[in-house]
Every structure is written in C-alpha cells, then in structure tokens.
Amino acid sequence: MSKRIVISFAAGLLFIAVLAGNGLAAPADATVAPNGDGQFKSVQDAINRAPPGRSDGPWVIHIKPGVYKELIYVQRAFEPTFSSFAEVANESSRFA
What we know:
Layout: H1 3-21, E1 30-32, H2 43-48, E2 61-63, H3 82-94
Parallel strand pairs: 1-2
C-alpha cells in the first residue's frame, strides 16, 4: 500500500473524528472497536454489513480509537448508464 493512500485514509479518519467531536457527524449505523466494545472488531466487517443500494443516506461507521491492522476493500457497485453500455458495446465489437 502506498504512503499516499495511507496518509489520505488517515486524514479522512481524522476529518470524521473532528466532525464527530463537534456533533456534526451523522448517527452511526455501525460501531467498530478493536477491544470488542462495538458491534464489530474490524472495519472490513462493518463495511461488509453495509446494505447495497441504500437510498436513505450513507452507511455511517463509527471507528473507535485503537490499532487496526487490516486491508480494507470497498467494492463500488456498477450502475450502468447508456454511455457505459455504448462504450462496452463499442469495445466488444472490436474483438468480434
């Protein structure tokens, strides 16, 4: 993992912590704590429990202070649009 990604992730977590400290953060849907004090012990488990296609707002994860040694994988859902179908059709016709 590159240093740039780690720094960006740490800065994002810090920003969320500042918002939570000011009472500006949304209520958490899931809480992660490495000592078992939350619903989940790992950030990845909380991400995996996020419901797909949620329309009433983002899935908010509160991450309590601690050391988390894990790789995080977030899969972005593919939402096809007309242009993406046109691009796929164009690409596939090149190989036909």
